[in-house]
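ok here's the first one, seq then struct tokens
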Amino acid sequence: MTNAAATPVLSVSHLTTSFLVDGEWRQVVRDISFDVMPGETVAIVGESGSGKSVTSLSIMRLLAAGSSRIEGQITLGGRDILSLSEREMRKVRGKDVAMIFQEPMTSLNPIFTIGRQISEALTCHGDISKADAKAETIRLLEKVRIPNAASRFDEYPHQFSGGMRQRVMIAMALASRPKLLIADEPTTALDVTIQGQILDLIKILQEEEGMSVLFITHDMGVVAEISDRTIVMYRGEAVETGETDDIFHRGKHPYTRALLSAVPRLGSMADRKWPLRFPIVDAATGERAEPVEIADTVDRRKTPILEVKNLVTRFDIHGGLLGRKTGAIHAVENVSFDLFQGETLSLVGESGCGKSTTGRSIMRLLDPNAGEVHLDGYDVMKLDSISLRQMRRSIQMIFQDPFASLNPRMSIGSAVAEPIIEHGLGTRAQARDKAADLLERVGLKADMMSRYPHEFSGGQRQRICIARALALDPKVIVADESVSALDVSIKAQVCNLLMDLQQSLNLAYLFISHDMAVVERVSHRVAVMYLGEIVEIGPRASVFENPQHPYTRKLMAAVPVPDPSRRGIKRNLSTDELKSPIRPVGYVAPVRNYREISTGHLVRLDEAA
């Protein structure tokens, strides 16, 4: 609880931040004012480009001095931050205010051990011996729930999972017991269960240390669970500020309502039989387009467009002086499922569960070790290189990072037309006409064809990748985490687009995701993967309304719920890392048995169930 009469830990008054672009100063944050009280959590929420991260970097004075200008007043613990020299500011960072970033791997030095990096944070801000620094570092690692902390002191960042690396960053931030912790999108890149653990951890540490938290995110579910007060930013300005409960239940600004409407709520599909479009609220006017249920056109009496039987994909591990095989990563182990025309089957699970490897193995982007894949009349496992090229006209893939999927030197018109030309399906003029039509179909304009990928937003780039995937008129699309990197309202728009295209073109989707709330909204059927195996599969309603496997229940329990009344609730999720899929040479996978709970709803029987 915060004390209204107390002095703010952080006071920001009329903050305006500008960047020097082409010789002109352009304001990216305009006239922002707010306070953070002792023990309080304040969330700054908004989409990419809203100015929320620039606000946090301005407070930390981490923007390049020559190309940025910070105006206004920033007071931290009674000190005027903007009047400090760089040397004085270095003493403030880490000691009085600490920051954790979105991607921990870019914040940790890969050539130094975890222990050394945290110890350095201690020795920089205090007179402490090497032995005491090591002891305190181990205590901090234990505090952030790193298993076997003492034995992991001398390990390197690459030896930790994403969630554990984020815990290390939190330990480093807490090293000098700062009064304020700034958390800039600390859970965005994490799986839903790891995200839940990090949110619980921040709540617990805040209670134990009594520190204030400035939490920056675009996820309204996270905001509801962690913040006392919320600041909504839109195009560099604070458009609404208030108690989190008021923002959620009585939000006035159209953009606030747009953010809230786009958040998928787990359980909202309980009375729905088929996938449901996301409601879209216009950020400028507040006008709401009501969600429309997608009519079911799946005919399961016909032959599946895709049949996968006992698929196995392993990656050999070599070691020793002679480079002999020492084991294998069992990435996909005896996976079987069918996919029908017009249907969405979602593969869901955490990073490392094998879902992306399954998608790539089906397309033969990776060569499986065993199993059968039948796609649109092709026996995929037996195809030569020429036949494989023809087969890929029937199945296309949309990847997680659209920028990495597009050639930065190729205009988007050329990128969309290229598959048509390469497969000899038309002349350059015909390919260009079809590319223009496809861009229009995904909500872009044909006159954008001459532009390059860097000239588009993330959501627009993903639409371009969808247009390119449609260029060969495929029957199946593998969408591999295709919306996980997008802001919440853009995610809703792209999901609606995918559902509309499915209905108009009768597409089949293998939708790969770790976002259970999105999966519930878009799926006909769901398969839950854990350590390379399907542990539960069935119709969407059956799996979500009657989950049987403990891992399925764990995934669902970790989803942030956009309800501020849950702010004090802790999930008490296990901090164990996902078990290793590495097996020794000669390992034989056990035969799995499944029980049918209801029609088409199967759950794996094992010791954990």
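and now the second one, same deal
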Amino acid sequence: MQALTTKRTPSTTAVTLLVLVWLAWTAWARPLMLPDEGRYVGVAWEMLRSGDWLTPTLNGLPYFHKPPLFYWITATSLWLFGQHEWAARVACLLGAVLGATALYLFIRRWSSEHSARAGLVALLAQPLWSVAAQFANLDMLVAGCISATIVLLAHASLLADHDKPWRAVLTGAWAMAALGVLAKGLIGFVLPAVVIFVWLVLQKRWRSLFTLLWWPGILVFLALTAPWFVAMQHRFSDFLNYFFVVQHFKRFTEGGFNNVMPFWFYPAVLCVCFLPWLPWMARSIKPKASQTAPQQAVRLLMLVWPAMIVLFFSLPKSKLLGYVLPAVPPLAFLAAEGFLSRAPLLRTSTRLWRTAAGFGSALALGIVVWLAVHPGHSTQPFAQVLRSARQPSEPIVMLDKYFFDLPFYAQLDSPVATVSDWNDPDLQHHDSQRKELADAGQFDNAAAAKLLVLPAALPALLCRSATTWVLGPSSALTRYSFLEAATDVHHESGTTLWRIDTETPAMLSALACG
């Protein structure tokens, strides 16, 4: 054990690059998944295309489900590296690297280099973390910000207790909390605050709470977060109500949203994901008499941290897998602590540890390969047809739903009309893609009147252009008889791309164009 702890300590840069390469090397291997990846990357693409870096838009309509940090990072990445899937996944990769590196550095400082390395191995071998690192939505980005905020707050508290400089670290913690808020809203601040509060209370370190409430740090937090919220409220009078009341408090307290799961969903998911590591994690729960005071404090933090995350996200009825990502790093550390708790390490234990890490890594790779072979309902093939056959002036119409990834893959330079029953009274009662567009349309009625089209108005819309491209379910033929006279350009997986040529007599007659 002593020999292991005296190995040369790698630099922070070397560790960060190693983590980045490990998590990113297959990020190019599959198309964007629908709906999440297509939605969020599509919003970033619109931001880059329109040049408006303040207001996120979904099909040209103000989209305030989430704050803008993911879009800013993704749009910048697309601008720097081009329109590739791996460039679209830079934000989630950065979040995963941030969370992993922050945990490693914290454990190395307050526990040991050996524990830090083992914890990093356990985290990178966890499929839930490594696969989510390549999934372009907001969950991994905010998980990385939350993890970094927690360890920076704990680091500042421990430094203050040991009479070491702590103000720069605490400033970084408040700045990181601000990035968490800009990544996904109030949880970027609330979750780290809850974790650190409970951790300090259990240690009876009440005075440290007042140390962390440092007014220069609070000013940094407000300076980073307030400008965007103030700007959006200035542009849209109902923004703050929609963003905080509807998208935060109502989503947390009310039903009607997707993925309703029982209270025990997240504990069950984490037990399954950490199944090979559970014996070591159970061994780490019991405190060790040989540990120093900082090591005991770190161990307690790693117990409180996942407990508070799981409890918080288990309260609402709606539960998505990515929400629990902030609980993964401390659980990886607990697995490492349990593994290292027996000294000297037995050959059998080391072999089992390597087997668990190898199995987790192979499983993560297998998931990525499976997703690459079975990409789901991607519109990439339709986008390729549009890019080769469509003229820039020819409009596009989507039937029944908005295909989130089409603007990204087809490099569309303007929003498209989406046809659906926007007067449906049940539209606002269920979380859906149509509801997202309808909500966005409330912030720009003039644009919504042009882009959110009722079925009865579709023939007149098609008559305005000599050529229009229509993308929708193949079953739309039964509802729109004029599609019989259209050209079926490409179809697969129950979706068809038609070309409408109003200059042909058959189509003129079918549409009854004046």
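notes on #2: Residues 347-373 form the longest helix (27 residues). The radius of gyration is 26 Å.
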